[in-house]
Amino acid sequence: MRNKILLSLVVMSSVLMMFAAGCSSKAPEAIKAGDAVMALWSGNSWYLGTADTACDTGLNVKWADGTSPSCVATASIVRDVAATKDTAVVGASVYAKWYGSAFYKAKVTAINADKYSVEYYDGSKKDDLSLGDLRM
After folding, report:
1. DSSP string spanning 12-33?
2. Is-contact 56 97, C-beta < 8 A?
3. CA 95 – CA 79 distance, rounded (Å)
4. 24-64 pLDDT, tens per residue?
């Protein structure tokens, strides 16, 4: 009996913690053809594109820069979510534009008026990014 009560308390506690954190048991909606995405191109560089038809390992991506579409593994595709002032806060993990159309994983380190400073995954830093240069 005591074990059942303890188990019930653990389950109730977990449910309350999920509720308090705003978590949902609903899985995120799968990316489908036509969705705006960011996909890993090579190394650690991410580029904007549009999800297209299924391929052997994931989805074909039509690249925004006009490069020929290519098959990208599902694990290397994320939804393209523009950063907002509410989401691009100091400490937030983002995809930050480097040069050209390449994005890399980074953390916001400072905000000065409308300029964002980030530190990239490799330790490189940039101090002059606009909100439009950041993705979540």
Report:
1. HHHHHHHHHHT--SSPPPPP-T
2. no
3. 11
4. 455 668 899 999 999 998 889 999 999 999 999 999 999 99
